Amino acid sequence: MRILIAKPGLDGHDRGAKVVAQALRDAGVEVVYTGLKRTPEEIVAEAIQEDADVVGLSILSGAHLLLTRRVLDGLRAAGADDIQVVVGGTIPPRDVEPLKALGATAVFPMGTPLTDIVAAFKSRSEVTR
Questions:
Q1: Quick check: 126 pLDDT over 60?
Q2: What is the rounded CA–CA span in Å between residue 50 and residue 52?
Q3: Which of 36, 78, 97, 127 is the most exposed place for a label (fewest CB within 10 A)?
Q4: Neighbouring-strand partners of residue 108
Q5: Strands of the sheet with 30-33, listed across from one edge
Q6: Cβ(1)–Cβ(121) under 8 Å?
């Protein structure tokens, strides 16, 4: 499984994304980190170029619904809707179900234990084999 961890939008805080990326690497998952301030279009292009199985969006800005929708729409438009999208960051509980309704396969709000995130990716990896 190859995961692209991306930071969409103008949010300049990436400590959480880097911690999650390292925890996944430590668990044996192949991770590509895009760096800060990517547009949804850049994330879609990188996901396709990197042959990602999953895009992990790390969003702290409050724009998680808009940015997630734009990434999902971009993947669909590019014919890459087999790439799953998961979202983490400052996600209010009221927005978890709307994100899933948009097409996010998992949502990890702030404070989700790393062990839970790693376990979710590991089980997802076993399903896709």
A1: no
A2: 5
A3: 127
A4: 88
A5: 30-33, 2-6, 54-59, 84-89, 106-109
A6: yes
Neighbours of 129 (CB within 10 A): 5
Q: Residue type for 106, please? A: A
Q: Which amino acid is present at 92?
A: P
* Distance (Å, whole) CA 60 – CA 81: 24
Question: CB within 8 A of 70, min separation 6: which ones?
Answer: 8, 40
- Nearest 5°: phi and psi at 88? -140, 160
Phi/psi of residue 111, each to 5°?
A: 95, -5
Q: Which residue has the tokens 């949010």?
A: 11
* b/e code 47-82 from CB counts within 10 Å (16+ = b): bbebebbbbbbbbbbeebbebbbbbbebbeeeebee
- Model confidence pLDDT, tens digit, residues 75-91: 999 999 999 999 999 99
Q: What residue has token string 């949502």?
A: 107
**CA pair distance 5, 15, nearest whole angstrom:** 12
Tokens of 94: 């009221």
Among the listed residues 112, 45, 64, 46, the one whose alpha carbon sits nearest the alpha carbon of residue 121: 112
The candidate with the shortest Cα–Cα distance to 71, out of 60, 83, 62, 61, is 83
